[in-house]
Amino acid sequence: MITDKIEKIGQGTIIHHGDLNKRVYLMKLDKRDIPGIIGEVNRIARNNRYTKIICKVPQSAVPQFIADGFLTEAQIPLFYEGKETAFFMSKFLSSDRLLELETEQLQFFGGMLEKQNGRKNGEADPDNKYNVKRLTPADSEDIVAIYRDVFESYPFPIFDPNYIKETMESHVEYFGVEHKGKLLALASAEMDKKGLNAEMTDFATPRKNRGKKLALLLLDEMEKQMKKQGLKTLYTMARLNSVGMNKTFLRKGYVYSGTALKNTNIAGKIESLNIYYKHI
Q1: Spatial CA neighbour of 211 closest among 181, 249, 247, 235
Q2: Bridge partners for 84 per DSSP
Q3: For the segment 39-90, what is each residue's pLDDT rounded down to a tens digit?
């Protein structure tokens, strides 16, 4: 299966790019690389005929990205070490990337936000028959089996057990919901301990296990564990087309901060992602 690659460029900037998503995603900016890194990501995108660049950058770098034609799609306050705002800055390199936007889904999502205003945060319904636990390398084959069942495509190589093990050993914690020793659903927390933030991501529940609020159970436990580790900001990039996941994050008090349009190849096609955050 085709996957994009993660690589380090410049002094320490990390990017994700390739033909699957047809874009460069600047995931982590090393400030020492400003301003030259802007020309570098443009060059990589141009040479590979990608159609979008999206960069997650601190507020202090935003003016230089704007000067190069980037636009803000979302922002997360107090993101870096609980102090500096993160901006998601994007540049569309082809008008084709903006054709066939998910207009109906965006309008429906707007209605969801309006209904959510003023509601109290929700908790998962306690149910003793489900056990939520942190997963280990021994679970990697079961993790991959669920991801293969749920996703037709994915922007990162989550269908590879070795990738799961490698990320576990570095900066990602995986959590699963079990019943009678069987893994029913899972998700992961991708941590930046220096920046005091984590992305709540890779939620997957096979169709036969849906309707049991397992994502809420996972998110409850993940938040508790991230808080224990001293992290301050949690965020996610949820598929616009996944009504259930958007409802889960809204119910848990996450704040919608923008939409990354036509951003990621997931479930077989390039989709838009809603960006949420929560301070803990």
Answers
A1: 247
A2: 80
A3: 999 999 999 999 999 999 999 999 999 999 999 999 999 999 999 999 999 9
Query: How far is 159 from 153, CA to CA, in rounded Å?
Result: 9
Omega cis (within 30) before 35: yes
CA-wise closest residue to 263 among 65, 24, 7, 15: 24
**Residues in Cβ contact with 197 at an 8 Å cutoff, skipping those fewer than 6 apart:** 79, 80, 191, 231, 232, 233, 234, 235
Q: What is the mean pLDDT of the chain?
A: 94
CA 115 to chain centre: 24
**Contact status, residue 249 vs residue 215, Cβ threshold 8 Å:** no
- Residues forming beta bridges with residue 255, ordered by sequence position: 277
CA distance 278 to 215: 16
Q: List residues bridging with 245 in a β-sheet.
A: none
**C-alpha angle 169-195-86 in degrees, rounded to nearest 5:** 125
Neighbours of 134 (CB within 10 A): 14
Closest CA to 213 of 248, 253, 255: 248
Q: Which three-class secondary structure state does DSSP give residue 169?
A: helix
Check if the beta carbon of residue 21 is closer than 8 Å to that of residue 49.
no
CA–CA dist 19, 160 (Å, integer): 18
pTM above 0.90, yes or no: yes
* 256 to 104, 125, 162, 219, 278: CA distances (angstroms): 18, 23, 33, 16, 9
